[in-house]
Amino acid sequence: MRRLLFITGIFITALVVFQYSTLPHWRTGFEFAIGGGVGSTVVVMSNATIMDNSKSPDSYISHEESDEVAGSDLEEESSSQNIGVKNLDKAHRNSREIFSHHKSSNLNENSISMMSVRYEKDLQTGNNDNVNAASTVEESTNPIAISRKVEDAGKDIVSSADFASLPLLPAKFPAQGVPDEDADLRSISDFQTDSSNISNFRSPTKGEVKRNANKLQVVSATLDDKSTMARALKRLNVKPMLLSDMISMLRDSAGSLNSLRPRQSSVRDRELLYAKLEIQKAPIMADIAGLRGYVFRNISQFKRSYELMEKMLKVYVYREGEKPIFHQPNMRGIYSSEGWFMKLIEGNKKFVVRDPRKAHLFYLPFSSRMLRNTLENNNSQSHRDLEGYLKNYVNLISGKYRFWNRTRGADHFLVACHDWAPKITGQPMGNCIRALCNANVARGFKIGKDTTLPVTYVRSVEDPVRDIGGKPPLERSILAFFAGGMHGYLRPILRHYWENKEADMKILGPMPRDIDGKRAYREYMKSSKYCICARGYEVHTPRIVEAIFYECIPVIISDNYVPPFFEVLNWEAFSLFVKESDLPNLRDILLSIPEEEYLRMQMGVRMVQKHFIWHKKPTKYDLFHMVLHSVWHNRIFQLKAR
C-alpha cells in the first residue's frame, strides 16, 4: 500500500508539472492564484483560468488619481530646472525601456484575454468589488512591482509595451462605479466632426465615416467574446450628444424647470428674479478690461451677472456634519477642486452669512472623496451605502431647518469631484445644483441645473501658479501630445492609431513618475500646439486644465462631456472637440486648421487661463469665483416669475 501511494504521488506530480509547463491557461491561473493573496480563489471557465477577488478587500483608488503619472505633480520639487525638447525623446526612450522590461513579466496575451473574460462576468453579475479593483494602479515605475500589483488586483490595465506587443487592442476596460453591464461600452458612433469653428475643413463623407467606425469596431472586438461584442456593436449605433445640442439644451433650460418652483415665494427669490432681469437687459459690450469677448457666450451678460453676484449673493454653509467627511478639505490630488472650494467658501466673509434667512444659496459642505474613503474603511463600499449616508444628512438638515423643504433642495448646492459623485447624489440631492467633475450628459448631468467642476492638479498649495505658461505659439514644434495610462476603451485606440506613426504626433503611454518624467511631461505640453485630452474610464480628465495652464489648445475627445463653465464660456473659441469616432482622422483635422485660426484659439487659451487657477486668497474671475458664479447663474435662470 505504501508503495502504491508513492507511485500515485509521483504520477500526480508529473501530471501537474506537465500541465503547468505546456498549457498557458493553467500556468497563468497558477500564477494568479499565487499573486491573489488571502481570500482569492481560482475559477475555471471556458478553458480559461481567472482569479475571483470577490472575497478580497476592496483596493479602490480612483482611475484618474492613480493614473495621471507625469501630469499629477503631487510632490514638491526641490528645483524648477527645465529640460529642453531635445531631451524629451531621450526621456521617452527611457520610459519605453522600463515598459519593455515589464513586457517580459507574466502579463502575456493569454492573461489579458482572461482578465477581459473575468471582468465581463463581473459586469454581468454586478460584482462591483472586482470591477473597482481594476482601478488601482501601482505607484512605482518598477516593472516587477507593477506586474505583481496588476496580478494581485486582477486588473485588465496593462503597460504600453503590453499593448504594443498585440496585433490589436483589448476591448474592455470597466467603467468605475456604474452598475449596469454596458457601462464601459461607451458609444463610438458614426457621425462627422463638429468643425464649425474650423475654416476650410471638409467634413468626411458618409462612406468615410462608416469606414472609420468599422475600423474602431475591429479594434474594440479584439480579445473579446461574442456577447460583449454584440452589445458593443449595439452601443456603436447610439450617437452622442453634439456640442451644438448641448448649447440648445442650455438655452431651452432657462426658466423651464417648473418642478423646482418654490412652494412659496420669498424675499430672496424676488431678489434673484430682479438679478435675472438685470442680466437679460445688460448693455451690449465687445471687450471688457481683463476679458476678451469672443471667449464668452455673451460677455455683456456675464459681466453684469458677475457684478450682481459680488453685490448681492449670500451663502449659508451648514455647520452640521462631522469630520472627516464634512468640513475637512483635501487640497491636493485629483479631487482637489472640491477641497479648495470648501476651504475658500468656509473662510469667506464676503459671501457667507451666519443667518440662513439672509441666504440665496445653501452649501452642503461634504467631500465626496472623504465620504468614499471613510465608508470604505468602515466596510461600506457600495453606492447604496454612500447614498444612504447622504440621505441621512439631508433628513438631518431638513428636519432642523425649513429651507430645504421650501424649495425641495433647489437652492442648495454641492461641489463634488469623485467619479461616483453623480451616482451617489442623484437621489438624495437630485434637485440640488451639483458642481461635478464627472459631467456626463448621458449619465444624469442636467445642463442648466448642474455645472461642471474643473479637474485640477495643485502642485504647490503655497504657489498654485508655479511654472505656468509655455512657449510662444509659433515656436511649438510638436503638433499634438498625449501621455498617460490606458484607462477606458478610448486611449488604447488613440495609441493604436497614432503612437510612433508621425514625427509631429507625440502620442505616448505612461511616463515615469520621477522628477525628470514630470518635467518631460510639462515640457511636452509647453512645446505642443494641441494637447489631446482623451477620456479615461469616465468623461473628465485633468489634461484639459493642464493644457490651459501650459497654453496648449485642448483637443477634447470625450463624447457627452460638458466642459467647465459651459454656461458662460464659448469653448469653441479656444479648444477643439473631436468625436471619438473620428480618431483615425485626428491628424488631418488638426492640420486642416489654418494658422490664423490656430493663433486665435491659442490666444483664447491665454485669455481663459485666469478662470482655472486657485488662489489661497481668491481674486477676481479666478476659479473659486467662477465655480460660485456658475451655481449663482444656474439658480437665477431656474426661477420663473409667478
From TrEMBL:
Localization terms from the record? Golgi apparatus membrane
Keywords from the UniProt entry: Glycosyltransferase, Golgi apparatus, Signal-anchor, Transferase, Transmembrane
Signal peptide (residue range): none
Q: Principal localization? A: Golgi
How is this protein situated with respect to the membrane? Single-pass type II membrane protein
**Is Metal-binding a UniProt keyword of this protein?**
no
Q: Where are the transmembrane segments?
A: none
Q: Where is the Exostosin GT47 domain?
A: 310-591
Q: Where is this region: Disordered?
A: 54-82
* Acidic residues composition-biased segments: 65-78
The protein's matches in Pfam families, at most eight in alphabetical order, are given as: Exostosin_GT47
GO cellular component entries = Golgi membrane
**GO MF annotations, alphabetized:** glycosyltransferase activity
Family per record? Belongs to the glycosyltransferase 47 family.
Q: What is this protein called?
A: Exostosin GT47 domain-containing protein
* Native source organism of the sequence: Eucalyptus globulus
